[in-house]
Amino acid sequence: MKANEFLPRFNNVQSVKPEQWKARCPEHDDRHPSLVITVSNNRLLIHCRAGCRTSDVLEVVGLDYPDLFLDSGKTKGTKCRIGSRQPELVPWWDWNWRSQCAELERLIQAKRENAQALLAGMQGLDLDALSANEFDEVMSLVARAYDWRYRCDRLDETLYLLQQDFRAEERRVQKHTKTRKTVMA
Questions:
Q1: DSSP 3-state assignment of 45?
Q2: How far apart are CA 20 and CA 4, in angstroms?
């Protein structure tokens, strides 16, 4: 299949740049183009930014994965097999956000522990015995430790809000998917 045979199957196709278009996704009620179609390595790549599965989009327009390969001597007759299931695009909200949040939590905790250890090490320090330069250095370290504790608290709050947003989007997409399957049944 050629790109000029593929694109007419979609509504409101607009050229974004050479070899890339956007169109209304036929799988969901799309008011603004959210389906991205790109030519890469002699094949068409499609991605719905609303989270629709590639296989569902292809099914609606009467195509299958092998149709994504552009006609050339090299790819004619190529069958698209990847394990026992067809590949699916991962929705944008699930791009490894759980592991990224866990890594951020570990970094925040490490910084917080470093700040606590620094402040604990300062306890019992005889400030009168320090020279002016040493005193300035100690005060600078204490200020930095308190600053990091404050930043860690703010980062914890931000991370919590991000996780809530991700979970809400996940529920919205799952609800949309269930609704779509009920309508199709």
A1: strand
A2: 12
> What is the β-pairing status of strands 11-17 and 35-40?
unpaired
CB atoms within 10 A of CB 170: 15
Query: What residue spans of the chain are helical by DSSP H?
Result: 3-6, 54-60, 97-122, 132-184
Q: Residue 46 forms beta bridges with which residues?
A: 37
Give the burial class of 102: count Cβ atoms within 10 A of its Cβ; 0-12 exposed, 13-18 middle, 19 or more buried.
Answer: exposed
Tell me the C-alpha distance between 72 and 3, whole Å.
12
109-125 as b/e: b if 16+ CB within 10 A: eebbeebeebeeeeeee
As a residue count, the chain comes to: 185
Give the mean model confidence (pLDDT) for residues 19-46. 86
Look at residues 179, 118, 104 and name the one whose alpha carbon lies nearest to residue 149: 118
**Whether the Cβ atoms of residue 54 and residue 87 lie closer than 8 Å to each other:** yes
- The H or E element spanning position 15 is strand 11-17
**What are the pLDDT digits (tens) for 136-148?**
888 888 888 888 8
Beta strand pairing status for 20-24 and 35-40? antiparallel
Query: Residue 23: helix, strand or coil by DSSP?
Result: strand
Residue 10 burial by Cβ neighbours in a 10 Å radius (0-12, 13-18, 19+) = buried
The band of 74, judged by pLDDT with boundaries at 50, 70 and 90, is: very low
